[in-house]
Amino acid sequence: MHFSKLVFPGIAMIATTYGLGRFSFGLFLPSITEDIGMTTSQAGIISSLFYLAYCFTIIYTTFQTATIGPKRMIMLAGLSVIVGLFTIGISPNALILSLGVLFAGASTGLVSPPYGYTISLWIRMTDQGKANTWINSGTSFGLMFTGLTAMVVFLDWRATYFIYGVIAVVVLLWNFKNIPPLQHNLNISTGSFNIRDITYSKRIILASLLLGFATAPFWTFSKSFIEQTGHYTDLELSIFWILIGLFGIIGGVSGAMIDKRGIHFAYNLGVIMLATSSLLLAFTPNIWLLAFISSGLFGFSYIYLTGVLLVWGIKIFAKNASLGIGIPFLLLAVGQVIGSSLAGIVIDTVNFQNTFIIFGITGYLALLLYPQIKVKAKPQPKGKYNKLQQSNKEILDYYEQHN
């Protein structure tokens, strides 16, 4: 199948679910909080529902995509974000808002693993890495788009979410048209699960939790923080958010950094940049240039570190790549559930500045959990396939028969 026929609608779906459905909430949170009449603590708890819904759906899709089929799962993700966006837009109170947040958050967990399956089935193996990289960049494109729409002065947050919902419908139809149905009962083996892998995964589990916890305030309250200073115009607030997405695209260089300097160096560099972005914002919210540097640094380091965690996880779970991706991303979301809920309470108790200082310092603690990986290649018998190799052979054979 032609590369762009799957990749372009894939970028659009990731941009819709992650950018419009999930992360745009922090951009519009000040207006939503004021209109619905919520406290900062309530806003933090409701924001954590995005990550909580993601936790449940990412587990579901990891184990059910092969059974249900990737196209049906992606369609379910599209329907979920449509319901979420329209529900958020019409929500008259915190309860209905929470329901919309749950649907929007659930879509992100429903969409990621199915696209991994889709790319492995329909894109040539030599192009699969490039395809996955482009599709994952959809989050950053979505963030930039939400920042641009926030510049449109005649649109309030409700009208904006309605427009997002219409866009989500178009994106869903585009994906429905372009993703082929799975007409062949192809069983993709992801390898066996080894208890030894759990022993080596303790560090990545703790690191993912801690990094998720430390990043939650920035995603949820960074725009609220600088807006309440009164030093920013609506245009500058939008630029602050756009820079997160713009520099997030550049964050895809983590793979090249790992190849050049090793995963230990790449991880430490990412952690330092991520924690520094929160501290920089805490001490300079009134200076727009430094706040912009903070948002760009956060966007870059967040996407960069997720790439490092992905490589780290796959190296640990060498026989089960889906777990290698799913575990760190799941634990990152669990940390964000805790961090978002707690950040709102801390802000109400102390203030924005001290909250970002606390969470920024917490981020540096992740330096103690650097990767320690020992990979030993095991020779395979000549002329025979192991389970994972056999699955790849089946994928290639199936691809050649249908193209």
UniProtKB/TrEMBL annotation:
UniProt main location, coarse: membrane
Subcellular location field: Cell membrane
InterPro entries to which the protein is assigned, alphabetical: MFS, MFS_dom, MFS_Efflux_Transporters, MFS_trans_sf
Signal peptide range in chain numbering: none
Pfam families assigned: MFS_1
Residue ranges occupied by any Major facilitator superfamily (MFS) profile domain in the UniProt entry: 5-378
PANTHER family in the cross-refs: CHLORAMPHENICOL EFFLUX PUMP RV0191, PURINE EFFLUX PUMP PBUE
Name of the protein in question: MFS transporter
Species in which this protein is naturally found: Staphylococcus arlettae
Organism ancestry: Bacteria, Bacillati, Bacillota, Bacilli, Bacillales
Encoding gene (name): pbuE_1
